[in-house]
Each structure stands twice: as C-alpha cells, then as structure tokens.
Amino acid sequence: MLSWRYRAGCLKVLALQILLLLIGLSGLSFTGIGIDYLRQQLQPNSPDPHWLFGWRPPPDWPPAAVLGLVAGCILGLALLRVVLTFLYQAQVGELVQGRIVVDLRAQVYDKLQRLSFRFFDENASGSIINRVTRDVQATRLFIDGVLLPGIIMALSLGIYLAYMLSLHTGLTLACLATTPLLWLLTARFSRLVKPAYLLNRSLVDRMILVLSETVQGIHVIKGFAREPEAMARFRKANRKVRDQNAWIFLRVTRYTPGIGFLAQLNLVVLLAYGGYLAIQGVLPLGAGLVVFAGLLQQFSGQISNLSNLANSVQESLSGARRVFDILDAPVEIRNAPDALRPPRLLGGVRFEGVSFHYEPGAEVLREVTFDVQPGQCIAILGATGSGKSTLLSLIPRFYDPTRGAVLLDGMDARRLDLDILRKNVGIVFQENFLFSNTVAANIAFGNPGATREQVERAARVAAAHDFITELPKGYDTVLAEGACTLSGGQRQRLAIARAILLEPAILLLDDPTAAIDPDTEHEILEAMANATAGRTTFVVAHRLSTLRRADLILVLERGRLVQSGTHEQLMAVTGPYRGAALLQLMDGESRRILEGAAP
Fold this sequence. Notes:
The longest helix is centred in the middle third of the chain and has 53 residues, at 227-279. The protein has 21 helices and ten strands. Helix content is 62%, strand content 10%. The strands form two sheets. A six-stranded mixed β-sheet has the order 6-7-8-3-9-10, sandwiched between helices. A hairpin with a 2-residue loop joins strand 9 (552-557) and strand 10. The two termini are 71 Å apart. By secondary structure, it is α/β, with parallel strands linked by helices.
C-alpha cells in the first residue's frame, strides 16, 4: 500500500530503469556488430554482421567510416546512459528520502498522537523512538533496496532471458542450469536471518532504553557514585547488539560468495558450449558469442544481487513490521460517529459502577459510584496503588472504563467530542513535564492564543509570578530540557498555571502540593481558592490542610470506594480516613483540627 501511494514516482523510476536496460542491450549489440564487421574485414568468407533494424552501411563506405559510426553509436549510448543514470538516482533520492521517509515518519508521529495511553504503557520510550527513526529508515530500505531493485531485477532477467533465447535456446538453458539452486539457497538464507533481524531490533531497543535512562537519571547515578555500573550496563547492551550484528554479517559473508561462485559457473558453461557452437559456425562470434557473454554477465550479476536483496528483504521487513505495528495499532479512544459538542461543560461528574483494568484479571477500580455537583471540590485519598490517578484519568478519557460509565453533565463521556471534553478539563499530573520553550509558552501550552496578561494572571493564581520575574528573562526565559534548572515546587506551580489558564470546567490535581514546602503550599491553597470557585475540582491529596477544604472526600482501598464524606463526617467515625489522619506527623494547625474532632 505504501508503494501504491507513491505509484507515480515508482513508475517513473521503473521507466528510467527500462530505458537503461534497453540502452545496455543496444550497446552490447553494437559491440557485437563491430566485432563481426572487423572479422569480416579480416576474413572475407566469414558471415555478414547482423545490422540492427535491417539497416546496412552503403557499400562505398570505407571500413574506418563504418567502425567510426559503430564507435560513435556506442559512445552516444554511453553518454545517454550517464544522463539517464543521473536522472534515475535523482528520482530515487527524491522519491524515497524526499517524500516516502518524511511522509511516513510524519504519519507515524501523527498516529502516536492519537493512540491511547495504553499503547505507551505497553511500549518503552526507547522502542518508540527507535521505530520513528531507525525503523522508518528500514522501511525506506524496502522501497529502494527491495521493491524497486526486485522489480528491476525481474524486468532485467526477463529481458536478458528473452534476448538470450532469441540467440540460442540450448545454450541459454545450459548456462542457466544452476539458477534453481540459487533460488533454493536464497530461500534458505532468508529463513535463517529473519528471526535474527527481529532479535537485533529488540536488542537495539534495549540499548536505546539504557542510554535514555542514563541521561534522564544522571543525577541519581552520580549522586550514588554508580558511574562504573552504568557504563558496564551500557557496554553489555552495546556488546549484545554488536554480537548479533556479527552473527548476521557472518551468515551474509558465507552466503554471498557461494552465490557468486554459482553465477560464475555459467560463464564456464558458456566458454565450453558457446565456444563449440561458435567454432561450428552455429553461433556468430560477435553478435552471438560476445553479446551472449555480455548478457550472461549481466544476468549473473543480477542473480548475484540476490544475496543483497535477500538480506535487505529481512532487514527492511523487520523494521517495517515494527513501523506498521504503530500504524495498524487500534485507536482505542476515538470520537463517536454522533459525538456531542456542547459549547461548555458545567462540571457535573458521576461515576456509575465504574470498573477498570489495564490487564484482564487485575482490576484497578471496582464498581466505583459517586456523584459530584458542579463547582464542588473533591479530595481523593488512598494508599499507593489504590487507583487514585487511574480514577482521574477516566474523566478526560485517557482510558475508557471496562464496565460502567463516567457521566459529565449527565452525558456519557464516550459520547462527547474529545477536543471539547479535554478543553474543559485542566490537568496537573503527578509528574509534570515542561517543554524546552519559554516560560510563557509553557503556561499557554493549552491555549496558545492567550495574551500575556492572561498568562501572568494564571501564574499569580498559582503563586508562580514572583519566581518567574526573578528569572534572567522573566516570562521569556527559555527552559532547559526537562526544566532542570527549576526546583520541583517551581515546576509544579508552572504546571498549575498551565491548567488554570484553560479556564476549565473541571480541574484535576494529582497531588499538586507533594513537592512544595509548607509555606508555598499555604500560599498556593489560598490562591487556588479563588481559581476553583465555581469549578469542579478533583484533587489527590494526603495532607489534612488540603483534605479539610474539600466538599467531599473519597477514600479508595485496592480500587474500591470504601468511604465518602466531608472531613468532619469521616473523622467522626472509625475507618481508614481517621486512621490515616492520626498517623500523620502533624503541625500545630493539624493537631488542633484533630483535637476538635469527635472521638
């Protein structure tokens, strides 16, 4: 299908190659004519040359003029071949590198944007990067290293075979007797190296993953003085790739000479049988034996290319298969055919018997039901792995429930247009990512058309304005990769500002104060009190200072909703919430909160 999409360019390449083949045959024919003409001049009793298209030079032409004409034709064909070869290579380069690779890589990237989180959960980042870069190039190899050469080889062999059969059928069959054996060896070689190339791709994925983790975790590696172990780990992964490449190379080097040897046997047959036919006068020397030798040499060269072609087939297909695994991956989260497009959500959220699992048989959420009115603040409490972040991820449809339904303003989230849904949901993730761009651009990421005034207002609400103005260029400061020059609290506040700028109907905060000191936490909570007014807010929290502000607290245990209510209601009964609160190391304010609660 990929080749069919670019069929016009492929047909141009094939047309140029056919012209090159015809020019090559014409050059061989003129060479044979020249040899037969010289032989006739030296041996007048020898057969006349077989001139092309029935044309013969006038009888009064001197031999030098005839030979000059033949030589001029050969030279002209050679020059034409140079021009066409240049055009052919330019067309292949423009088709493959200028269009196919660029378009395919863009297509893979576009598909990655539409795949659900589940795909990224199941595939390591190193593998994905390798597919978009190296494997796309391998797909390019299939076009210009397998498909086009394969078609050209088939055309060449067909034309050469027809020409040789027209010269002498018996000699052609004798010279090509080894061809079936060549095909058998090629098929065996392909079966041998196919799994080796697949393994090679996975080993390269592993090496890239090790490199990526090393770069991202360099502070941890240096902090624990683990540089030698990190280097040893990468060397081990690198050696595995090297050893696998060596194994493949060894098989190729064993296979290629054998193919070349069998191809050269054809020339031995030609000299023996063809020479006998020429001596007997059955086959002309120039237009017969010499041309046949040139054709057979070209034919044997194409057959010898089977080794490269077979190797390229497996190398390119192993990469192409991984690229098309992405392109063919199902888009699990997509718009319904009759998707609803409300102008703006009010913020009502209802979970009706929601269950969810990442893998069958391992449910993360079990029959969760609750109802939230627009404008309420909902705190979610639970131990690690209880399903808090998963619950949040179902609201903007990063995943769909395996059972039950998530309703927004009474509408099933699966019926809402995805763009409208997600523009109505602001998110601050547990691990926030900032792009290598200006501070202002990062805050305005979800709303690129926001004015500077709007950006600064969002930053003030998130208690980020003061530290931003202290940066070298303020809001125009370009952040380094991963915003490594900012503290964890500063990155968190920029992420909060980014979410607030959307003016969403629903705000999801996945433990937003976890990386912030108590003073900054108090400042953010006070500032966000105004930002969350009239907006439905879900916040994953463990600190009492955050929990006590919520209109409703949901307590999760192993994916089940075991308690719900206000802080005062939950502190009045024995249960997980009260137990978790009593275990906290409390400051003076939290201690007073608990002392005033019912026993």
